[in-house]
Amino acid sequence: MLRRFCPNLPIVAGRRTAPMDRRQHERYTLETPVNFSWNDPGDVRQRRKGFLSNISGGGILVSTHGPPPNGACIHFTVCLRPLYGGARLVIRAVGQVLRVESASETKGPTEFAASIKTFTLHENHKELIGRLNSRKTRE
Length: 139
What we know:
Elements: H1 2-5, E1 11-12, E2 15-16, E3 28-39, E4 45-55, E5 59-64, E6 73-80, E7 89-101, E8 110-123, E9 126-133
Antiparallel strand pairs: 1-2, 3-4, 3-6, 4-5, 5-8, 6-7, 7-8, 8-9
């Protein structure tokens, strides 16, 4: 029905968003576990788990009970389920926390958004594709 009134609305992750959405990368909805870590101010490595809500070439959205602080440099690993009996794809990445959204009054999980600076793709822990940088390569 919305398409009839607003045919030019872009689709992101299966749903339509307003034209003012300026994201450069298409988002994909995934509900899969994610492991992430960061160094706290005392340089102690903090490790947490959460659920990946969505991912794009530029970032992730994670739901967790122990989010990293805003601005933290994080390392994260996502294991995707095998498709059609194939190998399991593992994404290992480094990013930076862009925002942390407070938990609701029901004390549910907190969401945080992070950029993806670099990532590697692995097939069952063997490097599948060399290190890739999310930034544009020189032409």
